[in-house]
Every structure is written in C-alpha cells, then in structure tokens.
Amino acid sequence: MDTAIPDGGAQLDSLQREGALRVFGQALEGVEPIKGPDGMEVDLFDCAIAVHAEGVLLTLMLDAPALEFAEAAGRALIEELLEAVELLSGWTVQHSGVELHPDSLAESLAAADGPDAPPDDLGARRSRYLAPQAPPSGPSPEEAAARRACLQALAPRLKAFSPVSFGGGDPGEEDGAAGFGVDQGAADLAAGALFEASVAVLDELFMDVHELWTEDTAVAGCDGPLMRLEDLPERFAEHYTAGFARRFLVTAVALTTRFTDGTFRSLGSVAEELALRLLLGQARTILDIHGLLDEGGPALDTFAESVHEGRDRAWLYSDVPAEDGAAAVTAWFLPFDDTDRYVHPFAVGNV
Question: Which domain of life is it from (predicted)?
C-alpha cells in the first residue's frame, strides 16, 4: 500500500523520513483486530514499512477469510490512521493491492473444488484458458506518472552508478554513447526502484533477524512469518540461523552503502550476489505494482548483467539436496579471490 505526502508538500528529508518510519511503526504496533461485516475480523500480524521522499510504502500481513476483505480492511486501517494522527494530516493512500500468501495459495490450489475449478476435460480446459480474458486492474495513468516521477527523482541517490550502468545515457556524452540502450528516463526509473528496494529489503531483513532470534531456530523450522530469508536457496534453509541472518543483513547493509556513497566497484562475495538478487526482485515488484515494469524492467536486466560480471548462481536454487550445506553457506561470506573485493569484517566471522 502506497501512501503519499500532501499535494504540493516538500519532499521528506532524511530526518523527516526517520520520523515517518517511527510514527507509522508506533501507530501500527498492537493494532486491534479490524472489524468487518457480520462480525468478521481481520488480524494484522506483521508489517513492513519503507519510507521514500514522497511518502511511505506499507506491506501489511493480514489474516482474513477472503482477499477482498483483506484489501478493504487494510485500506480502511491506514486511512483511519492517516486521519487520526495529526503529524500525518493531509497524507493520502495512493494505491493498494493484495496478494495471497504462497502457502495459502498452495493450499487453495490443492483443495480446489467447485464451479471455478479447472474442468477435468482437457479440451474444455484449453478452451477456457484460450478465451479472452478481462484486462487486469492496475494503477491509473495519473498514479503511474506520479510514481514514475518519484522513482526517477531517487535515481541520483545511487551515487555509484550512472545511467550507463542501466543501459541508458546521453549519446552526446563521452560515456553515454556506449551505454545508450534504453531511454534515459527508463534508466532513472530502474535506479530509483533499486534505491527504494534497498530500503524495503533491509527493513524486512531486520524483521527476519528478530524472528529467528526470538524463536531460536533456523528458517527451515521457523513458525513465524519471514519476509526475505525464505527467498534464499531453499535447500540450505536449515543453515539460515539467527547468526547467519545477522551476517547476511550486515552484508546487505554494506552493499547498499557502497551503492549510495559511490564507493562500489564490484560484488565481493556470493552473499553479496544473493543480496543483490533480493534487491533486484524487490525493485521489479515495485515497478510491477505501479505498472512500470515494461518501462524499467529492461534497464534492471542490463544492470544485473553488468554487475554480476557473467556469474550465474541459479544452480544454488536447484532441488538437489545440499551435501555439505554448512560449509557451503559459510563460504558464501568469504571474499572472491581478487584482493580488491570488499567484504564487511563482521560477515567473515563464523555463523
């Protein structure tokens, strides 16, 4: 859910963004179940808050009997919060959407039975899926334009990269001609999405560290909600302990710091490559939510190919059981052979 500062208001500076993060966090802490029709209740059991210059991006994890109830309850909760908190006077909800948790989706598909279930007859099923589909709902052109401008304004915050890194640039400039593969605006859009993704992913990794530390377990045995660590290669999940999570968080912080202070030269370890994979995935999600993926997606792909230097870690996500997973995971934090590769000292310690 995307909330925005009042129209015409000045963009949030770093101190104001920190204040907005604290205000939203305190307001959402300990929220009572949201009442719905016929005594229905929707529970908020976790949330992620990412602040940017134009507002706050909220991810609410809700327990509701249906998706439409979850979206209506979540929007009503945030609109009530904006109205009740004086510091947020004039803020508005710009866009909201809802997704089914992967576990719930799997259960629903496994138990599918009823008029909306796929027909048994293959011919009927084929006809059903080839039938014209209603276009999916999405943000209005005005909403997309506003988010485009907001994300493009964030692009200069990634000081380590020029538009050329995203396949864009000015053909008239010395370094622009070689990289001029996408529109300058698309390159800025991708860079801004990557910056915003950095905020969101770090916030969610902090929550994952807290969850694993509280339960004193690894990802494979965690009963509570996890936001990001479940996106790492599943076959090593029993080794993603609280200690691992802390090291991975520090790795992500060090990587994004080099992105934003201009000191990034290259990825230093497998852990940094995996952290970048999470950042790129979140950046694509941000673009997709606002109907901007077709515009900014190719620039993100160009950036990924350049920064990964031709290395492909897709094999880590295979279904083959890890024979010596503990040693493999430990090695992720070791620097590559090059002496110029940077790895944060905390990340090199033992899990």
Answer: Bacteria
Alpha carbons within 13 angstroms on the beta-carbon side of residue 349 total 11
Helical H runs in the chain? Answer: 14-28, 67-84, 102-110, 122-130, 141-154, 176-179, 184-215, 242-261, 270-289, 293-307, 325-331
Please, which residues bridge with residue 47 across strands? 60
Taking the C-alpha atoms of residue 35 and residue 42, their distance in angstroms, rounded to an integer, is 7
**CA–CA separation, 36 vs 70, rounded Å?**
10
Instruction: State how far the Cα of 153 lies from the Cα of 156, in Å rounded to an integer.
Output: 7
Q: Is the four-CA dihedral 340, 341, 347, 348 of positive or negative sign?
A: negative
CB 290 within 8 Å of CB 307: no
Cα separation, 340 vs 272, whole angstroms: 15
- Tell me the one-letter amino acid at 150: C
> Three-state SS for 8?
coil
Residues paired with residue 44 on neighbouring β-strands, in sequence order: 62
Tell me the two tokens of residue 221: 């045995």
pLDDT grade for 322, boundaries at 50, 70 and 90: low
Residue 228: CB partners within 8 Å, gap ≥ 6?
201, 204, 205, 208, 278
Question: Tokens in use for 187?
Answer: 């390159």
C-alpha distance from residue 133 to each of 120, 201, 285, 292 (Å): 20, 34, 23, 21
Q: What is the DSSP letter of 11?
A: P
What's the whole-model pTM score?
Answer: 0.61
For residue 216, name the pLDDT band (cuts at 50, 70, 90).
very high
Q: Which of 246, 279, 247 has the alpha carbon at shortest distance from 264?
A: 279
In sequence order, the 6+-apart residues with CB closer than 8 A to the CB of 262 are 159, 160
pLDDT score, position 177: 44
The radius of gyration of the chain's CA atoms, rounded to the nearest angstrom, is 22
Task: Mention every residue, 6+ apart, whose C-beta is less than 8 A from residue 66.
Answer: none
Spatial contact of 146 and 92, defined as CB atoms under 8 Å apart: no
Domain spans in the chain, listed from the N-terminal domain onward: 2-101, 142-348
The C-alpha atoms of residue 285 and residue 303 are separated, in whole angstroms, by: 16
